[in-house]
Amino acid sequence: MIRLRTASLAMMTAAACAALTAAPATAAPGDTTTMCGSSLTPAGWVDVQWWNSWSCGTTFNPNIKKIQQVSGMPVGSTVNACASTWPPAGWEPVRTYYSGACQYAAVPSHEPNTWTIKRVF
User: 3-class SS at 74?
Assistant: First the structure.
């Protein structure tokens, strides 16, 4: 019985992580989703928030992130993005600052970790 519960729990955890790591294929500009921090942020998306969740493993490090699709947004749009990913092509940082929502390291610092990025082309 214990093996069955353990196997069931492992399968549910794997399914939850798989659901969190897949970015929606039909997302509109500005849409957000969450994914485990161990997965790469897809092209055209930026990290906008980090936190810790049991659904992505057992660690004290921030291990889950909210990402936002920025591809397709109009020129002149601005987004506050974590500095854990580079701005996509056509976007430039216009401001750098510290945000508690973007602590993506095990040992957080109060150094700037967030950008306001602007679509320039």
Answer: coil
- Tokens for 72, please give them: 């397709």
Query: Where are the extended beta strands (E) located within the chain?
Result: 32-36, 45-51, 64-69, 78-82, 91-97, 114-119
- How confident is residue 4, by pLDDT bands cut at 50, 70 and 90? very low
DSSP 59: -
Residue 71 tokens read as 């591809």
DSSP state of 40: P
Amino acid at 47: D
- The three-state secondary structure class of 95 is strand
Q: What is this structure's pTM?
A: 0.78
For residues 60 and 37, what is the distance between their CA atoms, to the nearest angstrom? Answer: 13
CA 82 to chain centre: 8
Predicted local distance difference test score (pLDDT) of residue 38: 94
- CA dist 51 and 30 (Å) reads 20
Question: What does the block give as tokens for 81?
Answer: 């993005």
- The pLDDT of residue 12 is above 50: no
Q: Where are the domains of the chain?
A: 2-119
